[in-house]
Input
Amino acid sequence: MTGISVAFGGVKALTDVSLTVEPGQVHGLIGPNGAGKTTMFNVACGLVRATEGRIVWRGQELRRLRPAQLAGLGIARTLQGVGLFPGLTVLENVMVGAHKHAKAGFFSALFAIPTADKDDARLRERAMGALTELDAEGYAARYPGSLPYPVQKRVALARALVSEPELLLLDEPASGLSEDEMHELGELIRLLSGRMSVLLVEHHMDLVMRVCDQITVLDSGRQIAAGTPQQVQNDPAVTEAYLGDAVDDTTDVSELAGTDGGTHRG
Ligand SMILES: Nc1ncnc2c1ncn2[C@@H]1O[C@H](COP(=O)(O)OP(=O)(O)OP(=O)(O)O)[C@@H](O)[C@H]1O
Output
């Protein structure tokens, strides 16, 4: 993504931001509240159109990117919150994520079109595989509303993984997780980077510092730093940006602890 600017009416949410997620790398996008992280993420998903700038994927410029195109491009995403279909079981929810691989099957079934049983079986198998990878196979027959939030988040991630994306876009995947769950999530993201690239928008500094290969830091819609976790941690502009944020919002002081000393690095 190069030279991305976004304006909402008179508000400049992003000004000339560039970042490249390299193959097999985890790229973190961080910044204080209102920095523009979600807007940048939404540009990458096709949910927000950039006022200026270019998105290039696999050597091709994506003009007028729409969210519906992502799966076909080998890109999957999870959004803030969970977004599972309450009327479908966990397994069915994950099968929705696999639909680009199915010629017939689950979707034909949804719309009462005659199904190809083989496709359906393959889809189920892939969806169960993704659930197993996330230790959630035991919940396959349950409905999302009956499950604890962290489990719902794992299911949402399984749904993104089942399409075997080349690029996984994660928007605040650690929100609402305990320390232990966050640690597991970090290990999982590292594991996933062996077979896909990851763009990670996240508030939890210790997670970001532990799992990312490269980090881009935004503040007030502008890129203020970029580099390895160590480079970013040692950048005075970053500390300053977070200090300003901590003064505005005292609840963020604990997060600040991870940005200054390096003690959270794994
Ligand atoms: N749809 C919108 N309409 C108008 N302004 C918006 C819209 N979305 C975002 N903004 C503004 O753009 C700026 C960047 O917001 P954004 O949500 O991208 O930041 P963020 O870094 O994700 O913040 P947070 O960490 O609080 O989620 C903010 O000033 C915000 O108020």
About this structure: Confidence is low (pLDDT under 50) at residues 101-105, 247-266. Residues 8, 11, 13, 31, 33-39 surround adenosine-5'-triphosphate (CB under 6 Å). The domain at 20-48+59-74+168-260 is CATH 3.40.50.300 (Rossmann fold).
